[in-house]
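input
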Amino acid sequence: MSKNANYTSEFKREAVKLSQSAGKPISQVDMELGVKPNTLYNWISNSMKEQKPIAKAKLSPSHRYKELEQENRRLQKELRRARMERDILKKAAAYFASHEL
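output
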């Protein structure tokens, strides 16, 4: 993007999520997204500052339990998808490997 690019807040949130969950160095993520490294670091820092007051707030046990249930469902869904993608890739690799012989 250009020198003074304006990024949407949605793009920033997704970039932060990607940098935290990709398992890649932030320098690689910023190159893939076409964002300057300092910009991505700033977005991550701002995101962490916004989340701290929420984390400090005392939540009722039932509210915290509901949040944990939602996160658990999300993670289970993500795991199912990752397993499905893995299985597809395994089958594709086996298919192409058998045709190369």
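quick obs: The two ends are 44 Å apart (CA to CA).
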